[in-house]
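Here we describe the complex-level prediction in full. Unlike the single-chain runs in Section 2.1, the two entities below were treated as one system.
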Amino acid sequence: MKIIVDAMGGDNAPGAVVRGALDACKNHGIPVLLVGRTEEILRCVEEGGEKTLPKGMEIRDAREVVEICDDPATAFKMKKDSSLTVGLNLLKEGAGDAFVSAGSTGALLAGATLVVKRIRGIRRAAMGPVIPVFGGRAILCDCGANAECTPEYLLQFAYLGSFYAKRVLKVEKPRVALLNIGAEESKGDTLRKETHALLKAAGEAGRIHYIGSIEGNDAMMGGADVIVADGFSGNVFLKTVEGAARFMMKELKKAFYTNARTKLGALLVKKELGEMKKLMDPSEVGGTVFLGISKPVIKAHGSSDARAITNAILRAAEYAGSGLIEDVERSIDAMKVERPREKA
Amino acid sequence: MKIIVDAMGGDNAPGAVVRGALDACKNHGIPVLLVGRTEEILRCVEEGGEKTLPKGMEIRDAREVVEICDDPATAFKMKKDSSLTVGLNLLKEGAGDAFVSAGSTGALLAGATLVVKRIRGIRRAAMGPVIPVFGGRAILCDCGANAECTPEYLLQFAYLGSFYAKRVLKVEKPRVALLNIGAEESKGDTLRKETHALLKAAGEAGRIHYIGSIEGNDAMMGGADVIVADGFSGNVFLKTVEGAARFMMKELKKAFYTNARTKLGALLVKKELGEMKKLMDPSEVGGTVFLGISKPVIKAHGSSDARAITNAILRAAEYAGSGLIEDVERSIDAMKVERPREKA
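The structure predicted for the assembly as a whole is:
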């Protein structure tokens, strides 16, 4: 097992990335191959308290960096010597088992699709963040890679999410639900109605455990392990959870700062509130997997600190050892729709 | 000014509805015309502590009740003597200035559209709930009446929301934003891109104050006064806010119940937390307006208690006196798209 890490991607690169990689390597025993400007990486290693590269850590030099201002669709091609492109090629060639980057989401997705390629038969790769829900967690698939979807894409997202929940989140029989407006069969737009028919058939064939449609409120209350969505509404869901949580934390802070009495109250629950805040913290989750790519690619949050990078590397190792991609390859025939309806 | 109220609609009807109407009538001076089974209404009036109908309160008998199990599309037609159908007809005939119902959303929307009718030139009526956002409130339009939309519908929703924010929420220059995935112009699906062009043109013509796209997180942080969405993603947004808030309150409760120390902390902020909980409480908001209908129709939450009904009646009175519908009628030419693209 070896995880390839884009040392130059993200707001806090390379410092936070190298520190996170050091932690994963030294304290969790995960071999890491860092890709980027060697001298900068070595300087960060030194700043991290190491005189030389620790055992299990390697560097592969790459001189260019994909910037946020670069066009996502072409950046990996235009910058052939970027840490992102070199890293993806290393993954393709088998120099490591997974690739982690905190760089541009669009560039990483385009690069993963065109360099590493999708699993044969998969129409579109999807982004699958794991989100906290009441009583546990759930995987949302897709959360923004595909703004426009066909029923077949959504069927495939359902399988991908279900395999992930089973293999990585260790849910024995993941409850798969379609994000919709209203739980009744008749609810939703054409895309939802057509997808519902496909998911129902897959459920009846015993391939996934489809429990029907779910609304955002029930999804947050833990009503499903896999939330299937087109990239547009999935992204709205994800960003809204983030916004509503931030809104609540701000209101809570306001409540606590009202007067001396409330401030004392705040002091008494400080520790527990910290735990609660952590629940909603993206750096705790560590990264979003790109499902449907033929090898594991993990996007860490752009603002990742060292801890977030460590978590993303841990998740990458979990994913790489899970057998998920083999699951998909074995099931791919059932994941196709005879006559796919592609949107214009 | 007189508000027509569906006495039989909602989970707690007629008791809660009649109590709410009594409060609006007696304590806020708003004349109310209750529609429903006279004997039941009178009994509730009596239980509300009144021997006879108070001044300003009238009853119009209607024998039938639209139930949740009735088909929404046809209920108002099949049950011609229902409180919903009779109430909508009274509104159409001018027996009152607005109609409030806590009954079936679908039946109310279908009835409002077919009995009271849309404002001439408006393609679809939209549901416009007012939601709490950090530092204030915003109107979301649409939140579920139209799962499938054209750019023209969204353009009209933007105008409707903007007029509402100006006239009812008293925002001088409402910031109108399109709910999207990413704030950049190039983001989103075809519907968003085409709508963006229309909204931009309306903004440049000085008709609305269009500030571009907005994501769910920024919307919750108060980034816009009017959030324009198709009914599908608008509903996902609304339900997710509800779910995330509930999730946070439950986690908060868990944090507070950890031990004796945290329980004391909870006691010290009890009052302020109550205020915070109120923020997210639908009964405080009171109802959702149906924008684009030629007269004010307000949907109160199905589980409305008396206070929620009172608030919905107050909102209906505000709306009826606002001049909003006249605004729309005056601007309707600018709200049309030359060659509307209707979806199949």
